[in-house]
Design a protein that fits this description.
By secondary structure, this protein is of the alpha/beta class. The chain contains 9 helices and 8 strands. Strands 3-2-1-8-7-6-5-4 form an 8-stranded parallel sheet. It starts with a strand and ends with a helix. The relative contact order is 0.13.
């Protein structure tokens, strides 16, 4: 059964962590992915929840009929500085324990690191994972990585090779549709390779920055070392959604009991309710649940 979850990032400034389950239920969702927020934990920081708050959150979710599927911390696994790696391991150990305590045994995250220091960052990543894999095994949690634009690895195939090199089935891949053009626009060839190591799919649209002579987005001065993308509502960008979901279906992902698709539109906070409802309707249609 495909679970369609909401990423509540657009509501971080207006909704308390404990109110997220009621919010997503009001918007029609049954599933929630916890993402960085002031009450949960910010990017690159230690989580800010204790066991009492976790217990309250679990009760609020149960009362709302909402299942927390996963948590998303962003940490500097790829360093490349040693103190950054130490912090990532220290912070993520606690996030893994929180995921287990929430009975949401999936942590989705990003590689981080620096593309101009790729060799050092890859080494830092592997050293971090050497310390975290025993924690994943102890807690029964899976950890999935997205090669985010401006991480030390951005190409989707190379990211999969790095994950595969860990030789650990508790570590998988997050395929973020809004990053697909930075991955190399290779969904049709990459997703079948991922198999059951595809841990989650994020659904938001984006423009293909390589089109129109690479002028789909314009930054000044020309030649800036920037990575530009956006998380738009489905249909507002260049992602071929019919092709994307066809590949997910052919690969067997949509038939899996643990299939997770997260709506993560960040570009229109002023219309967050409207966009969240639209995303759910559109995703149900694409999955075949409508």
């Amino acid at each position: 059964m495909v679970r369609i979850a909401l990423d509540p990032t657009p509501y971080n400034d207006s909704v308390h962590l404990l109110d997220f389950p009621d919010l997503v239920a009001k918007l029609g969702y049954e599933y929630l992915q916890l993402t960085p927020s002031p009450d949960f934990g910010r990017h690159f920081h230690y989580p800010k929840v204790d066991s009492d708050l976790i217990a309250q959150l679990k009760k609020r979710a149960k009362d709302a009929g909402v299942t927390i599927t996963s948590v998303l911390p962003v940490q500097r696994f790829g360093g490349p500085e040693p103190h950054q790696v130490d912090a990532a391991v220290f912070n993520t150990t606690r996030y893994i324990e929180i995921a287990a305590e929430l009975e949401a045994p999936v942590v989705n995250t990003e590689f981080s690191g620096r593309p101009e220091r790729e060799e050092e960052s890859e080494y830092a990543f592997y050293r971090a994972m050497e310390r975290l894999i025993p924690v994943l095994e102890r807690e029964g949690v899976a950890l999935n990585f997205d090669p985010h634009p401006d991480d030390f690895v951005e190409d989707g195939l190379e990211a999969w090779r790095i994950i595969r090199g860990l030789n650990c089935d508790r570590v998988g891949f997050v395929y973020v549709a809004a990053h697909t053009f930075h991955y190399g626009d290779r969904a049709t060839s990459l997703i079948p390779q991922l198999g059951d190591r595809l841990g989650a799919v994020y659904a938001a649209d984006t423009f293909d920055h390589t089109r129109s002579h690479a002028l789909r987005y314009i930054t000044n001065p020309p030649g800036n070392a920037v990575r530009v993308h956006q998380h738009l509502a489905i249909g507002d960008g260049d992602v071929d959604w019919q092709e994307f979901f066809s590949v997910l279906r052919q690969s067997g992902y949509l038939d899996r009991d643990d299939a997770l698709i997260v709506s993560n539109v960040f570009a229109e906070d002023e219309r967050a309710d409207e966009i969240s409802r639209f995303q759910l309707e559109k995703l149900r249609e694409l999955v075949g649940l409508a």
